[in-house]
From TrEMBL:
It comes from Euphydryas editha (Edith's checkerspot). Residues 1-23 are annotated as: Disordered. The lineage of its organism: Eukaryota, Metazoa, Ecdysozoa, Arthropoda, Hexapoda. Coiled coil: none annotated. This is DUF7869 domain-containing protein. Residues 1-14 have a biased composition (Basic and acidic residues). Residues 257-370 form the DUF7869 domain.
């Protein structure tokens, strides 16, 4: 803006013949330079429009008259930001070089968050950055952390949470809620949520002579090769998948006989509902069903793999041709956040063993570890991947006609012959 403020020269209050009212008005006037001309403005209007106090304008004027220059900026804040722009950019480019992991299971709200290898952390990355960068681009850990936290949304390792986010939400809102009516409402909701979770675990625990419980889930993607080399952090690795079915309720002991691990590498087949259905179908056809009338399948509600129409279609198809004694198949999905299933216990055992090994280069090395806790099957090479999309077409059409409300999957299904 090239408008400048100048105090009204004394001669404008010149005429003693002016009425008192005029004098008062003129005293309150200032003059602004506009296009090189002095223009009188009402002081009060000027101050009100700019929401300034009189003293502030006077201070600016005083300094301007003294030096004929605008005052220098002496306020606080990060005014050196531009000085570090090149370093900031270098750090950003460095962080972008890392390949995020493909997480097998992520809740919808995590879609923008990326995950790096769980062995990494900010300190390690900072050391790696300073090792590879030219000396004048070196940064402090604090600066590196700042860029990491403010320019990206990156975490390390698996997004699987131990604490249920719904439970956490209830407990936190309860802390700040003042109105007692609302408090009661939240407490009721939390109680229902917990009861539903407990009911789910009761279903998983139940033991009856005529009931067979199956629980299944996918392990997180395991990378190949697993080597202690920084290069793996930058490269896209080959994944091996492990889909595990546990036969029996959650109170039964885990043995190699009742745990079945279906494994395949990503070059052999995808990791979608088609593969899951093929594994499940194989499992259902190969277990001893004598004396059972009800099969209860329990799975984590992961939409891409376990919780979808194709699994329902496959189950119906299997039930239609199942042994005479099988009358009912139930499918139960847990309450989100409370989905610790028997397969997760198996995964915990295998992952503990995997962590101990520094180098794994062949898929069979993973399979040896799986075989310590499960009967291992190789999908694609030993067990065919069937085209369930094609063979379930008729059943899926029928399901669409029955029309689930809002096309949303429910938490449980039961099919009778
Ligand atoms: Zn919960």
């Amino acid at each position: 803006m090239d408008t400048k403020i100048e105090k009204l020269p004394p001669e404008t209050t010149r005429k003693k013949t002016l009425s008192k009212k005029h004098i008062r008005r003129n005293e309150k006037a200032e003059k602004l330079y506009k296009n090189g001309k002095l223009v009188p403005v009402c002081r009060e209007t000027f101050l009100n429009i700019l929401r300034l106090k009189k003293g502030r304008v006077q201070g600016v004027m005083r300094r301007y008259f003294g030096t004929q220059q605008s005052a220098t900026e002496r306020r606080g804040g990060n005014r050196k930001k531009h000085l570090y722009a090149s370093k900031r950019e270098a750090v950003q480019n460095f962080i972008k070089k890392f390949k995020p992991l493909e997480i097998h299971y992520s809740r919808e709200k995590h879609t923008n968050r990326l995950y790096l290898h769980p062995d990494l952390n900010i300190h390690k990355m900072w050391v790696m950055y300073n090792d590879q960068v030219q000396p004048d681009f070196g940064v402090t850990l604090g600066f590196f952390r700042l860029v990491f936290n403010t320019s990206f949304n990156i975490g390390f390792g698996s997004p699987r949470q131990d604490v249920c986010s719904t439970c956490l939400q209830f407990s936190e809102t309860l802390k700040i809620e003042k109105a007692s009516a609302k408090k009661v409402n939240i407490m009721t909701q939390a109680r229902i949520h917990k009861l539903r979770a407990a009911a789910f675990f009761d279903n998983l625990k139940e033991e009856r002579d005529d009931l067979l419980v199956l629980s299944f889930d996918c392990q997180k993607n395991l990378p190949l090769p697993k080597i202690p080399d920084q290069a793996t952090y930058y490269a896209r690795q080959l994944y091996i998948y492990n889909f595990t079915v546990v036969i029996g309720s959650s109170s039964q002991k885990l043995t190699k006989e009742n745990v079945h691990a279906y494994t395949w590498t990503e070059n052999e087949s995808l990791k979608g509902s088609n593969e899951i259905c093929s594994c499940l179908f194989n499992c259902l056809n190969n277990i001893d069903l004598t004396g059972k009338t009800v099969i209860r399948m329990v799975a984590d509600g992961c939409g891409g793999q376990n919780k979808n129409m194709m699994v329902l279609g496959m189950t119906m198809k299997w039930l239609a041709n199942a042994p005479e004694n099988i009358k009912t198949v139930e499918i139960i999905y847990p309450v989100t956040g409370h989905s610790f299933l028997p397969p997760d216990r198996v995964f915990a055992f295998t992952e503990k063993q995997i962590r101990k090994l520094e180098i794994i280069v062949h898929p069979d090395e993973y399979r040896v570890i799986f075989s310590n806790h499960a009967t291992v099957h190789n999908l694609a090479s030993d067990i065919p991947v069937l085209n369930w999309k094609q063979s379930c077409k008729d059943i899926l059409k029928l399901l669409a006609k029955l029309a689930l409300p809002n096309q949303q999957m429910q938490t449980g299904y039961s099919y009778k012959k």
